[in-house]
Design a protein that fits this description.
- Residues 1-48 are annotated as: Disordered.
- This is PACRL protein.
- It holds the Pfam family ParcG.
- The chain is 44% helix and 5% strand.
- The chain is mainly α.
- The protein has a domain at 57-161.
- α3 crosses α4 and α6 runs antiparallel to α7.
């Protein structure tokens, strides 16, 4: 008798597969580790990308130039630059649109809606222009107060106080 260990053909093939150095490992390739600075660098928007369409009504109006102001980045503080004087801007529908933008969660929409709403209500005669819009403003502000995001709630509350 011989002391040769006999393997079934299936076991022999499996053994060759696992012991062969030429076979690629079935494990996924090692993913590059993220750097701490990645959290500080917001991703830029690719205008030619598949997801270049704005996700909300306010974002769409802002992208089309329907809001007559733009964000000016400062070294310390941001500010709005109006295309025309805020006193000359018609409140209807701009004030309601800015109020809808208070529910936004992405920059620059959050800043533009909050500052634009505040600056419009600070112009002379704003009360007379805003009162007829209250039936449209109340449900929009109520929606921002009912939002699950604390920052959205805070912007809604600030707008309500104004």
């Amino acid at each position: 008798g011989s002391n040769v260990l006999r393997m079934s053909p299936k076991t022999a093939v499996q053994k060759r597969k696992t012991s062969s150095p030429l076979q690629s490992s079935p494990e996924p390739a090692i993913k590059p580790q993220s750097k701490p600075s990645d959290k500080l660098n917001p991703k830029t928007i690719d205008p030619f990308g598949a997801h270049s369409r704005p996700h909300s009504a306010f974002a769409a109006i802002y992208a089309k130039g329907g809001i007559p102001c733009r964000l000016v980045h400062g070294s310390v503080r941001h500010r709005l630059q109006w295309e025309c004087l805020p006193e000359t801007v018609p409140f209807d529908p701009l004030l309601v649109t800015l109020a809808e933008g208070l529910r936004e969660t992405k920059h620059p929409y959050t800043f533009v809606s909050k500052e634009g709403f505040k600056e419009l209500l600070m112009v002379e005669g704003a009360t007379e222009k805003a009162i007829p819009l209250l039936p449209h403003l109340v449900p929009v502000l109520k929606a921002s107060l009912a939002h699950s995001d604390d920052e959205v709630f805070g912007r809604g509350l600030d707008a309500l106080v104004q």
